[in-house]
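pasting for the record
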Amino acid sequence: MTLTVCIAATVAVAMILTVLIKPYINIGSHKLGLYWVVCLYGAILMLATGRISFSSAIKGITADSSVNPLKILTLFLSMTLLSVYLGDAGFFDYIADAVFLKTKGGTLKLFLILYAVVSVLTVFTSNDIIILTFTPPICIFAKKAKISPLPFLLGEFVAANTWSMMLIIGNPTNIYLAGSAGITFTEYLSVMWLPALCGGLTGLLMIFLLFRKQLLAPLPQNTNAESKPLKKLIPHRTPLIVSIIHLLVCIVLLAVSDFIGVAMWVICLVLALSLTVFDIVYDLIVEKTAMPVWRSIKKEPYELIPFVLSMFVIVLALKECGFTALLGDALIQNTKSDGVLFGLLSAGASNLLNNIPMSVLFERIIAGNSLPALFGAVIGSNVGAFITPVGALAGIMWNKILGEYGVKLPFIKFILYGGAVAIPTLLASVGALAIIL
């Protein structure tokens, strides 16, 4: 057990250091994420030292069960692809344009509208997609308006990582943790709507209190920003309409998946393939090339595949040596307090491991023995994303974008703001969980 735990701990420390010091390296025109390379090396080391056999690893990865990582990755990547197509069709650009350039009124009104729009879109798409889409327009608008972008950026980040708790599709950690226990779309929603609501409103209140002076100040009348023509934002309306229809059909089918007897990952995969086929045909007819579809497919977060699979192998090794069972026996009490405890522990662990590896580890610790603990881990995996920049992959990408637009948010400053918002938000969410379970 000692060697297995030491290897896992070393991988966790090395991953954090790569995220903080050099998360990516350039290889030609491509960026290679070092964080997942570290995890892959750790998984290989577990296999090479006999901490887990190759056959056991393959059996665990391909097992016909709800915890199968291949099914969970398929579900997440399919949902992400639907969101990517929606973004490439101009939907998010149009919304961002409407929010920043067509909102009349003061700074607070603009902030509240932005928070509401990001919250709603996050619920039905993906928090990562929303963060990547809305961050550049916020930076550009703030620079032209000569105002601080921090209230809007942090409001966007908090909204995207709290309201993502609402539906099972809002975050890959939701999908992994809930899927591991066989929790359906509607079962998940029946529990998580209240923690998401309480967390989202608490996060909004804390951001307002932190930045009330800036938010109550008048918005400059002339921002020198011009709205782009609708034709430029949405060059082709047909792909946009078809993308929206596919997303809505997917959400409806996910909601009734337990009644129709079709697995959620199958629904998402079929609709993602359907939209891909449509886009190929449409682009070949209209654009005379399939390059737009290829560009959309290239935007998928493929690094998530080796990252999750490697962490899954490492956690399987920890399970085989008895470490996860030992932690489960020590921590799980089979009471409502499990939700509070695991909410706090998972939020902290997300900032030591990143929230995806944390979810893989905590799923094995909980092992289906406590629903409050599992939902608590879901809360921690979302809210923990804005305690430090290493809490989630979205935070790593978000900080990279800020640097590209000249917005400075040092590590310590992020923690001060993030902690001030995350702690009350986390307490509100786990408190709501204790009420509803």
